[in-house]
Amino acid sequence: MGLTDAELTVLGLLLEQPRHGYELERVIEERGVRAWTALGFSSIYYLLDKLAGRGLIEVVATPGEKRSAKSRATFRVTAAGRDLCAGATKDALATLTPVRSRVLIGIANSPGLPEPDVAAGLARRLEALRNQLAELRATRAGQAPLPTAASAIFDYCEAMLRADIDWTETTLGVLTKETAMDKFDIKKAHRELYAPPAKDFVVVDVPELRYLAVDGHGDPNTSGAYTRAVEALFTVAYTLKFTSKKALGRDFVVGPLEGLWRADDPAAFLTRNKDAWAWTMMISQPDWITEDMIGVAVAEAAKKKANPALAELRLLSLVEGSCVQILHLGSYDDEAPTLDRLHNRFLPDHGLTFNGDHHEIYLSDARRTEPAKLKTILRQPVKAG
């Protein structure tokens, strides 16, 4: 039976000289051993019990002294422990350490975060690494001169920290540079369509725009199909973004979630009869995204997680033309008065009538925003009545 890293560390310290638990704690703290091992603060006596139970260490008997508490018992390595420690040490010297840094999980998941959040996280990491390196150097200086082995350990820890700092600085620099680069952003390319006033309705002319879209029916608050549709949209949208950047060298900001809403009776929107609603959820796409690219992105997404909505995704070209829109501030369920004012006052007063589905653009993330602070563009295609 082999030794864990923590067991091998404690065994090695006892090989230097017999020690009791308090002494082991002091040496471990002074040498910064916990910075490069998985040795916990409360595990010393547990490890001593395990090593003693395996016959690898034993209590040093002092003539005339009674066996005292475990914390005062002094341990030394047995012959069996010395042999096992020697073999394990030789193996440890030649063994390569697998890279399992948690930051790699963060980087793998980072496409699901806004880029400023990723940059902020890496900046915090960089500051913590620099502080850790300063502390390591101070600890080393406080123990100088060091034996060759201890000096080598500090050299290794410092080299690893410097390498991590270099990697974090480079990654943060690339991300910051990319964030500053010109990217296609639907909200900036068509600012007049994505920044209406909140007080008054405005009339805009909406050109042909292309969307990644999926259709459905029913209450979005209770429909599993709606949840799956939105998840599929964002998964494929981000896959397309990174595929475009890698394969074409063309980057873009993933647009906000948008929705076309329809009902046999438009009054269903005023009464909030959501079960009667049919919808098409959408995310805008740059004009260079093709149906073939979408097909590849859907296939990649399906490999990672089964979602029946993936098979329903399509590329939609939408021409809305003349539209009336306004920015709604607040809960989605509080839209009724604004829609009533649009349907029964603004449109009749201006000789306009409906000419397409009710269109909503969700500028806020409902998962992270208080309902009262939600920002939603309400858009209605119109024609002369």
Percent helix among the residues? Answer: 40-55%
Helix-strand category: alpha+beta
Q: Over the alpha carbons, how many angstroms does the gyration radius reach?
A: 32 Å
Tell me, what's the shape?
elongated
The average pLDDT is: 88
**Mind telling me the CATH superfamily name of the largest domain?**
Regulatory factor, effector binding domain
At CATH level 3, the topology of the largest domain is: Multidrug-efflux Transporter 1 Regulator Bmrr, Chain A
Distance between the termini: 86 Å
Q: What is the class of the largest domain in the CATH system?
A: Alpha Beta
Tell me the strand percentage band.
15-25%
How many distinct beta strands? 12
- Count of helices? 13
Describe the secondary structure blueprint for this structure.
Blueprint: H1 5-16, E1 19-20, H2 21-30, H3 44-53, E2 57-59, E3 74-77, H4 79-94, H5 102-109, H6 115-143, H7 148-180, H8 186-189, H9 191-194, E4 202-206, E5 209-217, H10 224-248, E6 257-262, H11 267-270, E7 278-285, H12 291-304, E8 314-318, E9 321-329, H13 336-349, E10 352-354, E11 358-362, E12 375-384
Antiparallel strand pairs: 1-3, 2-3, 4-9, 5-7, 5-8, 6-7, 6-11, 9-12, 10-12, 11-12
Helix pairs in contact: 1-3, 1-4, 6-7, 10-12
